[in-house]
Amino acid sequence: xxxxxxxxxxxxxxxxxxxxxxxxxxxxxxxxxxxxxxxxxxxxxxxxxxxxxxxxxxxxxxxxxxxxxxxxxxxxxxxxxxxxxxxxxxxxxxxxxxxxxxxxxxxxxxxxxxxxxxxxxxxxxxxxxxxxxxxxxxxxxxxxxxxxxxxxxxxxxxxxxxxxxxxxxxxxxxxxxxxxxxxxxxxxxxxxxxxxxxxxxxxxxxxxxxxxxxxxxxxxxxxx
Length: 224
Hints:
globular
């Protein structure tokens, strides 16, 4: 029981649970990207609607949504606690700035990037997920998500918000993907190069697909 408690309260334990929840969220991103990419079939949303309907009605997916919400909460809370502990450990800044040429700016800005992504997540769920779930519970049917996307991404403000969200996701993943494996103890010179390469590919491809989605709708590159 004590060891279980330390898993969530010690610094190493917090990093471990944060990494584990992060990898789970990465797997969700892959599925989310795959479903959203169905709009590029350019068939007036027919294929996308099939995919969205499966995600909205499949009992396994609906159950995993609860796990997903818990994963988000754990990842956010543990990240904020670690950030606060690091600040308390060094309340006074160095008189001379430390030179750390090998540390990228985005690896030192994970809390800021995570906060921007949290704000984006609030906008995203308010636009699509929450209205769709409310509609399902109220009328026992789904909203026409494809038409909702067309309406939302006809607004340049919404498009800009999503583009900034995708950029924040890119920088967050670029450090977080490899860092998660390191925190879980999965680090070996034989595999580190492969993990780093996979992380870079994932960090580019997933945000790029999500980035192109609102642009494609706004500039009418896809059929309506």
